[in-house]
Design a protein that fits this description.
InterPro entries: Amino_oxidase, FAD/NAD-bd_sf, Retinol_saturase. Pfam families: Amino_oxidase (PF01593), NAD_binding_8 (PF13450). By secondary structure, this protein is an alpha/beta fold.
Amino acid sequence: MTQTATPSTATSGAGPETWDAIVVGAGPGGLTTAAYLAANDQRVLVLEANQVVGGSTQVFRRAGNKFEFDVGTHYVGECGPGGRMQTALSGLSLTERITWLRQNPEGHCRIMVPGTTFHTPTGWDTYLERLIAAFPGEEKGLRRCVRILRIISAGEEPRLKPWMLLRWGLRPITKLMDACGLSADAQAVILAENGDYTWPPYRTPAVMHGGLLHHYLQAGAYYPRGGGQVIGAHLTDVIQSYGGTVRTRSRVERILIENGRAVGVRLRGGEEFRSDVVVAAGDYKLTWTELVGDEHLTRKLRKRLANLEMTQPMFAVYVALDVDLRERDTPPLAWVWPNNDVDGYYREVEAGRCPEQMPVGISCPTAKDPEGTHSAPPGYSTLELVSWAPKEHAFWNVDADPMDGAEYGRDEEYRRLKDELTERVLDTASLMIPDLRERMVFCEASTPMTQERFTLTSDGSCYGIAPLLKNLGPFRPKVTTHIPGLFLGGASTEFMFGINATIWGGMKTAGVILGRDLEQEVKDGAVFVDEAKLTEITEDWDPLLASKPGSVIRRAARRRPRANA
């Protein structure tokens, strides 16, 4: 099979090409917005600086394509029937093309803190029962804490929600747990998955952490069959099948503002495109400071940007092992904390230091998707080990901007720090996989500088603006802006961050642009895409190459055999 991108049709004459809508940034949010617009008769251009679409959902391959790793697709909530993910994808005829594998409902994530191993289940009742079983002497406090979290985050006992929000929901999660008399160990278990938003508990409103728990507890955790790249590949296919164009290696230098409204964009190199609608679906801070420019900002927005904090950036280690972890009792997902001082680790990182002991999130794609197409050959496993580390360039001995191609990768101090933190991450991961180093056949790490370079995000942040009270609910940035024709998308908008939220937000943003309630239309059964118009998926279809518009697929996908019963 050969698949190529739909070529851009240049407008004749000397003027710049004109589109109905231009989307800047091809992460899941931007691609979903573009797909809904294209499927509703809008001529759409998507511009992506990287060579691959997908943002943090993309994958990369190493060792001669022997191993494939997800950059940021580890586990996603609300993907079952009736969930937000299925709703957003159904309007694009993608629910069969992007299929979600439910992870073990008895315990989708293993949490390990010193002296305690806990398996996060589906359902609040089971969650509470397991907490009490783990900490029987703290039953009263656990019942109180979990009840409050359910009220403020899960919609239970709605008449009490306003009071509970004011009393506890807007205060730090640590204040609530302290008031409930929970021990440090019990708190560490409840907080263990907060690496899913990389922000210190003592600065995180209880409603925010409760929302994270509810995201998974309500219906479990899921992983896309074939890895994260299938998301970008299929959304791109919708856009191109409906007359849109997706261009990679096309970095936008400026959003053009004329007479107070957005009229198009200019690329680095000078190429211009015109449109009455521009969707900035990349980094919130850089959108305003670099793409729009200070002269077009309001005083209030300037003040907000000056004090804006981003979530902590990730440090990730990608490992391949010469053993199939499905043959062991190794879980597909885990969070391992070498101590119970969750806030203490964040305080060190906030101070520009990295402690000797690093918490680690462990994701095993070969276990989450046993028949994955490219993850690893039979008999091998891949692991993605994530922690977080200082964002400051000085910490990494980088004195230039990674976004502008700063040469730092060969710097001796940078490499030393990278190797040192890699060993610390491996130390923690070895608490769950003792023979990790002995079975390791591949290892590579990425730093916050890597994230900045490839995704053009402020401070290398994966999750956008920090989940402080001033950035939540009605205070979160809207998709509409003070500049007519300019809309926002991505992780820092009112629809929140994470794969589910940004895809959902992409649909909602398209609805705002079209002046329609697309959510309700889809829930009422509307489907805007005829699946027959989409690319036929055959054995040699490769989501990574399909996410590089213009690439040609040259080889069949390698599929992993099922585990023996």
